[in-house]
Design a protein that fits this description.
Structural class: mainly alpha
Helix content: 55-70%
Order of helices and strands: HHHHHHHH
Oligomer: single chain
Number of helices: 8
Largest sheet: none
Number of strands: 0
């Protein structure tokens, strides 16, 4: 097994989770990971310095994000075709919180959504996110702050988590 195959086997679960968070569609996430790894394979098997990938995980994330953002720019339809409509609802194992977060993330611009996912799910630094998206660290910080502000103001999140009332401490006699 060559180095690329070992990398792909180890990286697929993490890349798939990130892709699902970006797309909210298991099939699209699989396609995104497959296209990312295909492009990496082609690059890795080029001759000379053009075929060298120094940081494969960072390269994979950048490629995946660019593919996702490019597709979002081209495709503006929010419809997802399905073969059949399910007869029963999904189990309610905190499905409300998941759907609420999904709705809130869907209201963000694709780049802001990617920044939030990379920062708070992948736990990347602002500098790493900036490198992936081609933004300055300051721009990533600003966009993170603004995106989080929009998430906090989102009706779906504010309905799910009402604002906290000030707590009063009982005084001792």
């Amino acid at each position: 097994m060559d180095d690329f195959e070992e990398f792909a086997a180890a990286a697929i679960p993490g890349l798939h989770r990130t892709a699902w968070l970006l797309t909210h569609d298991a099939h699209r996430a699989e396609d995104l990971v497959q296209e990312t790894l295909t492009r990496m394979y082609v690059k890795a098997h080029r001759r000379g310095p053009r075929g060298r990938i120094d940081h494969p995980l960072a390269y994979a994330r950048r490629t995946m994000l660019r593919l996702h953002l490019d597709e979002r720019r081209r495709k503006r339809s929010g419809e997802i075709p399905v073969d059949a409509v399910p007869d029963a609802a999904a189990p309610a194992a905190d499905l409300t919180a998941t759907l609420t977060l999904r709705e809130a993330l869907d209201e963000l611009k694709p780049t802001d959504r990617a920044i939030v996912v990379l920062r708070f799910y992948e736990d990347l630094t602002h500098a790493e996110i900036g490198d992936l998206l081609g933004l300055s660290e300051a721009a990533v910080r600003t966009r993170t702050s603004r995106a989080m502000g929009r998430l906090r103001q989102t009706a779906a999140l504010s309905d799910h988590h009402p604002p906290h009332e000030p707590q009063t401490l009982a005084r001792r006699p």
